[in-house]
Amino acid sequence: MSSIYIDPQVYTGRPASAEGRLEKEIAVYDLLDRLQIPFTRVDHGVAMTIEECQDVDQLLGIEICKNLVLCNAQKTRFYLLLLPGNKPFKTKDLSKQIGSSRLSFAPAEYMEKLLNVTPGSATIMALMNDPDNQVQLIIDEEVSALEDFGCHPCINTSSLRMKTKDVLEKFLPAVHHEAIFVKL
Q: Which stretches make up the YbaK/aminoacyl-tRNA synthetase-associated domain (predicted)?
């Protein structure tokens, strides 16, 4: 059972008002609308962990995936990894597949600088804030095989559900990012 507040209402599309919303969250809704990607949304208290998202997942009828911002030891290569929320992350399994050794979690300042998100708010939607493609998207094949996709809109006080196909075929081309698919 989650300890965060969750609005029990599942909304279709963007909030009726931008009041109380961050500019980066509204920018996500603007882009999704422009790309004609339909989505449902649940608003909630700050969710910092996958465990805190479990009740949100139930309302949306999905499992929000883990979004990890990683980097190499020199902090010259950055990655956004999406994997199922219940799947443990083993850096050696990923390092081998992408040819990068010694991966670690990227420091918060790099998350903010490269993706305009803070810890707990990492999301594929943040790739819209990376026009220079400094962050390589990596998706576990289990996530790409799901019919529906769950993520935050660049802030961890709302969660979205949309078609995975729309994310892969409309969103990623629009933000000029390509995914590397891995099996973890």
A: 47-168
Q: For residues 144 and 13, what is the distance between their CA atoms, to the nearest angstrom?
A: 22
Torsion region of 20: left, alpha or beta (phi above 0 gives left; psi -120 to 50 gives alpha): left
Reported as half-sphere exposure (CB side, CA atoms, 13 A), residue 60 has a value of 31
Q: Give this prediction's pTM.
A: 0.94
Q: How far apart are CA 165 and CA 167, in angstroms?
A: 5
Sign of CA dihedral 35, 40, 44, 47: negative
Return the H-helix or E-strand segment holding 109: helix 108-115
Token readout for 4 is 């965060």
Q: State residue 54's pLDDT score.
A: 82
Sorted by where each starts, the structural domains of the chain and their CATH numbers stand as 11-182 (3.90.960.10)
Mean per-residue pLDDT of the chain: 93
Residue positions counted in the chain? 184
